Amino acid sequence: MPTWLGTRAQRLRALLIALVMAIIWAVLREGAAALVPFFIGAILVYILIPPVQFLQDRAPRKIRGKRVARTLAIILVYLVVFGLLGGLLSYVVPELITQTQQLVSTVPKLAENLSGRISFDVDALLERIPLAIRSSVEEGVQTTIRAVGDALQTGIEKTVQTVWATVSFIVGMAIVPIWVFLVLSNLAGAQRTFNRMIPPAARGDVHNIVGIIDSLASAYLRGQLILCLVIAAASTILLAALGVPQALLLGTLAGAFEVIPNLGPFIGAIPAVVVTLLVDPIKAVWVALGFVVIQQVENAFLVPRISGRAVRFHPAIVIVLVLVGSEVAGLWGMLLAVPLAAMLRDVARYLYLRTTDRGATPEMAMEILRAQSV
C-alpha cells in the first residue's frame, strides 16, 4: 500500500469525513427551502449582536456579568426593532402599496402621453421625410411606446406579486424571532460547544479562520444595511423635492437595489428615471443628475467608511465578481459573490502564512492579516 495513503486508521477517518460531508451536502440540497428562515435568522443575529453587546456592557454592575443582563439587553433590542417594524407597517408599507397601485394604473396613460409628446416633437422632422418612410417611422414609434408601457406594467405587476409572496413568506416565519433570541442569549454556550468539537491541536487555526469569516461577514452585512437605508432616504428626498410621483416607492426601490455591489446604484436609478421620463422628460434629466450626485457622495464618503474596509476590492473587480456570481448562481450569486470572494482571499492568505517554510504561528498570521487590512 503506498505510504501517501497513510495508515488504515487515517484512511478510515478520511472516508468517514467524506461520507459525513456527502450526507450534509445531500441534506442541505434537499432541504434548502426549509433552511431559508434560518439563513435569514443568521443574518439578523449578525446585525443584532453589536447593539445587544453594547447594552449588556452598560448594564448595572450587579448584573453585568450575569445571564439576566444579556436577556434584558436582547429584550430592549427586540422592543426597538419591533417598534420600528410597527411604524413601518402602520405608515410606510400602506403608503408603498398605495403608490404601487397608482403606478401600475397610470403607466399606460403615461406611456400614451409620452407617445403624444414624441409625435409632436418630431412632426417638423417627419415633414421632411417621404410619406412612406414617415408612416413606417410613426408606426414604429407608436409600437415602441406601447411595448415599453406594456413591459413596464407587466414588470411592475410581477414585481408586486413577488413582493407580496415574499412578505407573506416572511410573516409566516414566526419561528425566526424565537430562534434568534435563543441564539443571542446562549451565544457563549454555543461557542463552548463548538470548541469541544475541535481537536486541541487545530483549535487556534480553526478559531482564527472562523474569526476571519465572522468579522468580514458581520461588517459587510451591517455596512450594506446602512447603505441601503441611507440611499433609500436620500433618493426619496430627492424625488419628493423634484415632485416625482410615487417618490417613496421609487426611493425604496433604489435603496433595495443597493444590496448589489457597485451595479446596484445604476440599476436602482432606472425605475425612477423611466417613470419621470414618462411624466416630464426634462425633469428626468434632473432626476438622473441627482442620482449621479448621490452615487458620487456614496462612493467618496460612505462606502470607504462603511463597507469598503470589509471587502477591500477595486470597483472593477467587484463588477466582475458580481457578473460572474449572477451567471453561476443567479440572484444569490450576485449578492454573495463579493463577500465570499473576500472571505476566500483572507482565509487563503492566512493558510499561506501558516503553511510556508517559515510558517507563522496563528497569532503572528492574524497580526500580519490585520496589518494588511489597514
Structural features, described:
The protein has 374 residues and is mainly α. The chain has helices spanning 8-30, 32-57, 67-121, 123-127, 131-172, 175-185, 187-197, 200-241, 247-256, 264-279, 281-306, 308-311, 315-355, 362-373. It folds into 3 domains: 1-30; 37-197, no CATH class; 204-374. It is built from 14 helices and no strands. Helix 2 packs across helix 3 and helix 2 crosses helix 6 (175-185). The protein is globular, with a radius of gyration of 27 Å.
Shape: globular
Q: How many helix segments?
A: 14
Radius of gyration: 27 Å
Distance between the termini: 50 Å
Name the average pLDDT.
78
* Largest sheet entry: none
| Structural domain tally | 3
How much of the sequence is in beta strands?
Answer: under 5%
Q: How helical, in percent, are the residues?
A: over 70%
Strand tally is 0
Q: Return the structural class.
A: mainly alpha
Low-confidence stretches: 1-5
Along the chain, the helix and strand elements come as HHHHHHHHHHHHHH
Overview features:
374 residues; mainly alpha; 3 domains; 87% helix; 0% strand; globular
